[in-house]
Amino acid sequence: METQLIEERREGTTAVLTINRPQALNALNTAVLRQLDEAVARVADDAAVRVLVLTGAGKAFVAGADIAEMATLDPIQARAFSAFGARVFRALELLDKPVIAAVNGFALGGGCELAMAADIRLASQKAKFGQPEVGLGIIPGFSGTQRLARLVGIAKAKELIYSGKIIPAAEAAAIGLVNQLYEPEELLPAALELAAQIAAQSPAAVALAKTAIGRGADLAIEAGIELENDLFALCFAGPDQREGMTAFREKRPAVFTATVAGKS
Ligand code: CO8
Predict the structure, then answer these.
(1) I need a surface site. Which of 99, 143, 200, 224 has the fewest CB within 10 A?
(2) Catalytic residue among 2, 38, 93, 133, which?
């Protein structure tokens, strides 16, 4: 039987995926990436799930791509591995449900890249972040050069990627890489609480907001505004807009019925 490298559970309407390879600090090898991809696809198809929380078992979130597996790759295999990881992370980024990374410890190399594919990053005060690839003679290969520059700006991304330095959680929060810091034992409860707060909103509206922000970030401002106008109009096609506004006028909580399932 295949070793279970991604532990999957449901907490109400939240799916919790825990990368579970603590003996290698949850390093991402092909098997972990494949199981993560499958778990994300299940979450995408499960209409009962409104938010995904991603975390790691033990003292690491993910300490990077698996160096032992990468050590003997030829250039063709290296490209395939890089493209595979990038595709898995992009599927996570494009999931039409919000993804919260609960960064419990080391988020290095591919681990930092994985956290950056999430919508929101919450972290333990003890977490550490970095892109140490250049010290191994490689560059980030799971889209880190692209997402880090977009998240923290080109100058800071260059500083981190060129130096390979590992920064504490407080510094990651100060540069905008992390949304919020928590005591280690408070991290997962905080992630679940935020997930529950998001889950109480219209899932259809949240999904459209995710699309507007995610796709809009790659567009010129005029095209982004057009996209928002179109997606705003689309809100009026489903039941949630009527329910949300009727509930407000009737001074009662809204009961949203639109479901979001299937890959975007
Ligand atoms: N890959 C494989 N095994 C790892 C990794 C890793 N990235 N990180 C840790 N491990 C293993 C260690 O080898 C060790 O195994 P063993 O007990 O069998 O020796 C075990 O996990 C525990 O690790 P340590 O004993 O080193 O734990 P420490 O607490 O002393 O140190 C560190 C923790 C500082 C996190 C240290 O483990 C470390 O520096 N790890 C490597 C960090 C790193 O360089 N990450 C970047 C990797 S490169 C990358 O992610 C590129 C992504 C794009 C790939 C593109 C594809 C082509």
Answers:
(1) 200
(2) 133
**108 CA to middle of ligand 1, Å?**
8
Q: Is ligand 1 within 6 A of the CB of residue 148?
A: no
Ligand 1 near 166 CB (within 6 A): no
Best residue among 67, 84, 148, 165 to mutate for probing ligand 1's pocket (most ligand atoms within 8 Å of CB) is 67
Does residue 130's CB lie within 6 angstroms of at least one atom of ligand 1? no
Distance of CA 74 to the CA centre of its chain: 29
CA distance 264 to 260: 10
For residue 196, pLDDT beyond 70: yes
Q: What is the pLDDT of residue 264?
A: 41
Q: Compute the mean pLDDT over every residue in the chain, rounded to the nearest whole number.
A: 96
Residue 259: the pLDDT is 75
Q: Measured between alpha carbons, how far apart are the two ends of the chain, in Å?
A: 31
How many whole angstroms separate alpha carbon 248 and alpha carbon 215? Answer: 30
Query: CATH: 3.90.1310.10, 3.90.226.10, 3.30.420.140, 3.40.50.300. Which one for 6-199?
Result: 3.90.226.10
